[in-house]
């Protein structure tokens, strides 16, 4: 069907058949469980050349076809290809799928450069196919809650946005994500940076300048593991974004300062941890809910030592909403939830950050 709505009753269309490329962390923990839990999709095929991962895929998703290479999927009559393979393969696999006439979802980062992302966007547009980017952190509970506060003007005019995605991993885990080889597109700038920059652009719009600091701090590490970005948005908001694997004490996930009030939120959205534990979203059942003691606080002038501010109930995290939106886009009833052009804008900021580190200057992306 290649992206057209499948036959079936209007109230209950047949599930869209999906081929998943890659069954590592992204494929097995995020994409496969979310697709399998959705009434809109059927996980029909998985590609992996790793026998252990192939066995895991068959055990977790009975009846799924396991192929050794993505090319084996192009003639399977699928409705969507999801690319969750290593970063360096994203462009080649997405290009081949689009040229085969298949809509595509690509895990972030879409590409290694903004130019490659824009070229993929053009190809998809020329073929009339969906190309969407899996920016799941737009559906984190903290981001959804903050966005709601900004929509109603609860902070007044925002002056500074601080966002931290920090971890304490004093020893490198290895693998391509921590590789220093340029072709692997590893390191925190492109990994966690893809999330925090995307969120900043969604909230506050285009960026006019980028300053960055980036270090390789852990013994034996090859790629950046402690990185900072300072962005100036066209509307005057300044975003300070921190990504670290070396944070022995974690800072607040968000600290947002406005003319009327500030919002401080600690802790990560619970969905990734739940998925890693094998839990799955069930339609109609609670998902992405965090305890009250982790809610953010809204206020002005109070000391955090006394718990100042008013607790703001966290909206539930909702990763399933991304794939629900993809299904709607494929069926012609909704927009693409994350476009390749948006991904290109994020990559332009990351490229500017890399240049800022290399040359020690502030860069206009």
Q: How many helical elements?
A: 9
Question: What's the order of the H and E elements?
Answer: EEEHEHEEHEHEHEHEEEEEHEEHH
* Termini Cα gap: 39 Å
How many distinct beta strands?
A: 16
Kindly state the percentage of residues in helix.
25-40%
Radius of gyration: 21 Å
Identify low-pLDDT runs: 1-9
Q: Tell me the β content.
A: 15-25%
Please describe the biggest sheet, giving its number of strands, its sense, and whether it closes into a barrel: 8 strands, mixed
Q: In terms of structural class, how would the helical and strand content be classed?
A: alpha/beta
Main-sheet strand order equals: 10-11-12-9-13-14-15-16
Shape: globular
Mean pLDDT: 94
Describe the protein's architecture and organization.
The chain is α/β, with parallel strands linked by helices. Helix content is 30%, strand content 22%. The chain contains nine helices and 16 strands. It has an eight-stranded mixed sheet. Strand 1 (8-9) and strand 2 form a beta hairpin. Helix 3 runs parallel beside helix 4 (114-127), helix 4 runs antiparallel to helix 9 (340-359) and helix 6 (192-204) packs across helix 9. It is globular. Mean pLDDT is 94; it is low at 1-9.
Draw up the topology in text.
Layout lengths: L7 E2 L2 E2 L2 E6 L3 H13 L3 E7 L3 H10 L4 E3 L12 E4 L6 H10 L4 E4 L6 H14 L3 E4 L6 H11 L6 E9 L25 H13 L2 E9 L10 E8 L4 E7 L9 E5 L3 E4 L5 H6 L19 E4 L10 E3 L7 H11 L9 H20 L6
Describe what is shown at a glance.
By secondary structure, the protein is α/β, with parallel strands linked by helices. The chain contains nine helices and 16 strands.
């Amino acid at each position: 069907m290649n992206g057209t709505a499948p036959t079936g009753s209007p109230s209950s269309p047949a599930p869209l058949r999906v081929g998943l490329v890659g069954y590592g962390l992204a494929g097995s923990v995020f994409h496969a469980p979310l697709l399998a839990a959705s009434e809109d999709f059927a996980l029909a095929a998985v590609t992996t050349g790793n026998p252990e991962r192939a066995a895991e895929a068959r055990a977790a998703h009975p009846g799924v076809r396991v192929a050794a290479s993505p090319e084996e999927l192009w003639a399977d009559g699928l409705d969507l290809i999801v690319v969750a393979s290593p970063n360096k393969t994203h462009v080649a696999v997405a290009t081949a799928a689009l040229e085969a006439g298949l809509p595509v979802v690509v895990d972030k980062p879409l590409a290694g450069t903004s130019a490659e992302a824009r070229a993929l966007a053009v190809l998809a547009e020329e073929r009339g196919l969906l190309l969407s980017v899996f920016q799941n952190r737009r559906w984190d509970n903290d981001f959804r809650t903050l966005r709601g506060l900004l929509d109603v003007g609860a902070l007044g005019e925002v002056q500074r946005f601080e966002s931290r995605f920090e971890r304490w991993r004093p020893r490198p885990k290895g693998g391509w994500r921590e590789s220093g080889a340029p072709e692997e597109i590893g390191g925190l700038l492109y990994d966690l940076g893809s999330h925090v920059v995307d969120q900043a652009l969604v909230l506050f719009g285009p960026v006019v300048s980028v300053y960055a600091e980036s270090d390789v701090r852990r013994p034996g590490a090859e790629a950046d593991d402690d990185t900072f970005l300072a962005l100036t948005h066209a509307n005057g908001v300044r975003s300070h974004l921190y990504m670290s694997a070396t944070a022995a004490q974690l800072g607040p996930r968000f600290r947002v300062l406005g003319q009327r009030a500030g919002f401080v939120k600690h802790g990560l959205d619970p969905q990734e941890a739940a998925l890693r534990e094998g839990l799955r979203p069930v339609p109609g059942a609670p998902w992405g809910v965090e305890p009250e003691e982790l809610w953010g606080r809204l206020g002005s002038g109070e000391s955090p030592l006394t718990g100042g501010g008013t607790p703001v109930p966290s909206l539930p995290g909702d990763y399933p909403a991304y794939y629900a939106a993809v299904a709607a886009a494929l069926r012609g009833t909704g927009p693409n939830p994350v476009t390749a052009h948006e991904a290109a804008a994020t990559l332009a900021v990351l490229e500017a950050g890399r240049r800022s580190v290399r040359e020690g200057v502030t860069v206009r992306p």
